[in-house]
Amino acid sequence: MNIQEAINGAVNILKESNIKTPHLDSELILSKVIKQDRKYILLNLREHLNKKNLKDFKKLIFRRTKGEPIAYLTNYKEFWKNRFYVNKDVLIPRPDTEILVEQILKIYDKTRKIKFLDIGTGSGCLLLSILKERVNFSGTGVDISKKALKVASFNAKLQHLVNRVKFYNSDIDKFFLGKYDLILSNPPYIKKLDLKYLVRDVALYEPSLSLNGGKDGLSEITKVINKASNLIKKNGKLILEIGCFQRNEVVKKLKNKSFYINKIVKDYGKNDRCIISTKI
Ligand SMILES: C[S@@+](CC[C@H](N)C(=O)[O-])C[C@H]1O[C@@H](n2cnc3c(N)ncnc32)[C@H](O)[C@@H]1O
User: Residue 200: which pLDDT band, with cuts at 50, 70 and 90?
Assistant: First the structure.
């Protein structure tokens, strides 16, 4: 069977399973299997696929029909300017989270030298993207999930950043190390009861540890604010990603811990997504 025939077959199977982007998904999955980019696939449609590649391709297409996200099948996701390794132990980096990177780069120019902490670092996408952009920064990532930290450490190696980063496996509640100029976090913020209403790909496959914000969706954000209040230097910045309807409650919690609200930034869908605050 050649590439064209394999892709056509996969597209039909994915269409039957109501997968919205069957062509793209088939090409990305085949790219992963034959270790070539999509351009190669499109330029070599008549190339014969060997038995092993065909078998691996069919297996991954089958997993896609069950809703497994494409990033877990290909083991990568682009975020900001880099490609990150991902697996089922970490949240797949989201475009909305890039807003945090954008805002941080606006606040701190290239000459600044600061120490920052990323709470709930997951794949390390935020922490490592910022370190890549700001060579004088040093970063610390904390995560409650040991498996997530393995992924983050692997990404730090891929990005050649191991010398400027430290990782700690800890519940943020129990983390006491250091004082930081900047603390950022994209904590889990979905209400526990709403988890089952998320789209299938997310609900069934992404780690609940990354999504579950407890009964009111605010339990982890609250921990982050309380802990950041102790770990941050005076005049240091706390930058948080929040859920669509959490703005007012989060602002209240921040003010209670003596954070001044600098700015609330909307995401691409015009929802409040990021709060920038300063410890006074
Ligand atoms: C929404 S994900 C964010 C991952 C990554 N920073 C990103 O933006 O893609 C939240 C992360 O927080 C971690 N986490 C959840 N509760 C935590 C806690 N109490 N202490 C430390 N990390 C926690 C999860 O394991 C997960 O990796």
Answer: confident
Instruction: Give CA angle at 104 (103, 106), nearest 5°.
Output: 65
pLDDT tens-place string over residues 119-177: 999 999 999 999 999 999 999 999 999 999 999 999 999 999 999 999 999 999 999 99
Structural domains counted in the chain = 2
DSSP bridge partners of 238? 183, 277
**Length of the chain as a residue count:** 280
Determine the 3-state secondary structure of 43 from DSSP. Answer: helix
Is 92 part of a structural domain of the chain?
yes
Same-domain status, 56 and 191: no
**Judgement on whether residues 61 and 96 belong to the same structural domain of the protein:** no
CA 252 and chain centroid, separation: 26
> pLDDT tens-digit profile of 85-123?
999 999 999 999 999 999 999 999 999 999 999 999 999
Q: Which residue range is the domain that position 253 belongs to?
A: 79-279
132: nearest Cα among 155, 159, 151, 109:
159
Ligand 1 neighbours by CB, cut-off 6 Å: 91, 93, 97, 120-123, 125-126, 142-145, 148, 171-172, 186-188, 209-210, 220, 223
Q: Could you tell me if residue 177 is inside a domain?
A: yes
